[in-house]
Hints:
6 strands; alpha/beta; six-stranded mixed β-sheet
Amino acid sequence: ENLEPVVNQWANRPLNTMYYPYIFADAMYIKVREHHRVVSKAVYIATAINKDNNREILGLKVDHAESYEAWQRFFQYLQSRGLQSPKLVISDAHKGLKKAIGTEFVGTTWQRCTVHFKRNIFKQLPKKDIDEVKAGLKAIFNVVKIEDARKLKDAFLEKFGDNPKLENAINTLEDGFEDAIQYLNEPTKYHQHIRSTNSLERLNQEVRRRERVIRIFPNTQSAFRLIGAVLIDYADGLANKNVLANRKG
């Protein structure tokens, strides 16, 4: 119970003292007791890279199932604390999340996580004789200029486009390609950090590791309290890393 004011203060701190050009968003599910039943709840978490190239955790919210309305509420909560529209929001391809980004953040571009995107393409590939195909797909994203990514994609389609076994994979590539290369419009020093949601997924794993001990939260507030405490600890670790990195720099 003593954690509650600490977590609340952290979760409602102002976000208008710093500009965050790159924001990462994801949701994970937990089990909570509610009205004598065990139900699933979605935990929404946002992290960011600030203008000083340091990583921060912006906030969390426990809500119902992942949806456009719930993502909208989460983004509005961040905005109520002073968050400005970022350059990019990096996430997976959840339709409600994409729609909420477009609704709530004027002028913001959506960056589709390249790790999730490539995984989706690879799932569509046949099982045999695809080493060359995989290498061609990976090469598209191992560039520093957006024009080079487009050229490599066109070359890939020229080479493999007539193969009927690759039709589904190629359709997936074409449908999501532009959303997955938007990070290439940003300075090269940021590319490895903003092309995927890997950093946020590592944070989610840390939350999950602590959450597994409890398994079922007695109520939503206790979930918010514990997850908030985990995020505060993680944020303190990030802050210490940032200080050390800045000193070395």
